[in-house]
Amino acid sequence: MIDRNLKNVLVVSFGFLSLFTAYGGLQSLQSSLNAEDGMGVASLSVIYASIIVSSMFLPPIMIKNLGCKWTIVVTMACYVSYSFGNLSPGWASLLTTSVILGLGGSPLWSAKCTYLTISGNLQASAEGKIGSDVINQYFGIFFLIFQSSAVWGNLMSSLIFGQDADITFIPDEQLQYCGAASCDVTPNVTTSRPEQKLVQILVGCYIGVGLLAMLIVAVFLDNIDREQASQFRGNPEPFWHTFLATFRLLGDWRLVTLIPLTMYSGFEQSFLSGEYTKNYVTCALGIHMVGYVMICFGATNSLCSFVFGRLARYTGRYLLFLLAALTNLSCIIALLYWRPHPDQLAVFFVFPALWGMADAVWQTQTNALYGVLFPRAKEAAFANYRMWESLGFVIAFAYSTFICLETKLYILLAVLLLTCVTYPIVEYREYKNPTPPIEEGAYTQHRETVQTDKKNIIAESRL
Questions:
Q1: CATH code at 395?
Q2: 239 lies in a domain?
């Protein structure tokens, strides 16, 4: 029988799976689907700029007032609005819904991370295990399910766009500008947009699965921090204390040292979804192949997330981060020299597969690391995580239409090398001076309260 905490982890995971089946599919297509004047990439840049703003202030306020469950439900609605904006895309509709999504993005992820961390610590307390091990396991389960959203969202887009009767033939003259030879400063590459009817069918499907995500969480997720939220509303901290919680945590040197690692997560994800899909896949194969290539990324990411979440207790985080860094380094160097051609179909899938393996480490282990290092300031810590990761997205999407792909690869390489210098410092200091886990009594008391309530209910039923 599945225990209560694992059940909640599964509900959160499948809710995010459904939500990001829609958003992930749209994100992968934006640079190709709404390529006119860089509108799609601009909307992504606005999304992550808005996430930065929301990370500064909203997560602690929303989570402490609404609790994790209802923060997740409310902010999921912000993501669904972006799908509506893509029904008839224009600058006004895309940018407006991008802002709405961005404002909900940081509270959504912060609430999810906080919920999984609380659940992991509760389960560890109940079983007498180490909190960080259970948290790692829960994040691994989450990302196993969540990352598979890339499979389903991109499968939907490829199957629907594959019905387009006017799939464009790629001339040899265009192939010479694909890959690192592409320089968007001179518009050499052209792509055709699928039929509007097919676009609307796809977006309609995305809206449906987004609404399903809200329903799953609202109905099946337990409100495990309801008591804490009620106490906060009844005896609130000074407004500015909560409002500035994200910034106060920047006084911790560990958080500052983690900034390059966190920003790199944004850089590497934006490169695959924005640059690789446009300058390699769409350029050489056509937009209808983007989904199939990204399915490979999602499937690898999903499986490796689960494996690495369990493997971390035996290898430690450091070896997994080293594996991810070496994998990305090898891919970046290879992408600098590879000139994509339709005859090399298998190679188009190799890069996203390797990228997915590395991204599984960046996602699972960085999330778990924040939970372990800042157990007493979870909301502010995960808000900082989203803020700095989003800054990486914003910078990458902002220069997307202004500099050549080769330069973008060198920038990505530079951030990766900086991460390899700063992250080990945090790991070494944590090894020498481990962060004390959250007070055992907090979770023991919660468990005893739940058990007492159950006994009282049983006693009353017998009477």
A1: 1.20.1250.20
A2: no
166, HSE (Cβ side, Cα atoms, 13 Å): 7
* Per-residue model confidence (pLDDT) at position 404: 87
The CB density around residue 166, as the number of other CB atoms within 10 Å, is 8
Cα–Cα distance, 289 to 145 (Å, whole number): 23
Which string of DSSP letters, residue by residue, matches 115-175?
HHHHHHHHHHHHHT--HHHHHHHHHHHHHHHHHTHHHHHHHHHHHHHTT-S-PPP--HHHH
**Whole-number pLDDT of residue 457:** 38
Number of domain units in the chain: 1
Q: Could you tell me if residue 171 is left (phi over 0), alpha (psi between -120 and 50 degrees) or otherwise beta?
A: beta
Output the CA–CA distances (angstroms, integers) from residue 184 to 214, 279, 392, in the order listed: 39, 9, 20
Is the distance from CB of 375 to CB of 40 less than 8 angstroms?
no
Quote the tokens at residue 424. Answer: 């080990």
User: b or e along 120-154 (b: 16 or more beta carbons within 10 Å of the residue's beta carbon)?
Assistant: bbbbbbbeeeebbbbbbbbbbbbbbbbbbbbbbbb
Q: Are 255 and 384 in contact (CB under 8 A)?
A: yes
DSSP state of 109: H
Q: 166 phi and psi, to 5 degrees?
A: -120, 60
Q: Is residue 18 part of a domain?
A: yes
DSSP notation for 12-74: HHHHHHHHHHHHHHHHHHHHHHT-GGGHHHHHHHHHHHHHHHHHHHHHHHHHHHHHHHHHHHH
Distances in whole angstroms, Cα of residue 406 to Cα of each of 294, 316, 339: 22, 34, 12
Q: What is the pLDDT of residue 238?
A: 53
Q: What is the DSSP string of 283-337?
A: HHT-GGGHHHHHHHHHHHHHHHHHHHHHHHHHH-HHHHHHHHHHHHHHHHHHHHH
Cβ atoms 19, 11 nearer than 8 A: no
Can you list the residues of the chain whose pLDDT is less than 50?
Answer: 184-190, 232-233, 439-463
CA–CA gap between residue 107 and residue 422 (Å, rounded):
27
Question: How far does Cα 435 stand from its chain's mean position?
Answer: 26
Owning domain of residue 193: 4-224+244-433
∠ Cα 16 20 21 (to 5°): 115
Question: Does residue 459 form part of some domain?
Answer: no
CA–CA gap between residue 305 and residue 165 (Å, rounded): 38
Q: Calculate the alpha carbon distances from 307 to 143, 184, 365 in Å.
A: 10, 38, 12
What pLDDT score was predicted for residue 462? 46
Under DSSP, the state recorded for 276 is I
Exposure of 197 by Cβ count < 10 A (0-12 exposed, 13-18 middle, 19+ buried)?
Answer: exposed
Q: How many other C-beta atoms are found inside a 10 Å radius of the C-beta of residue 234?
A: 7
87 within domain boundaries = yes
- CA gap 258, 261 in Å, rounded: 5
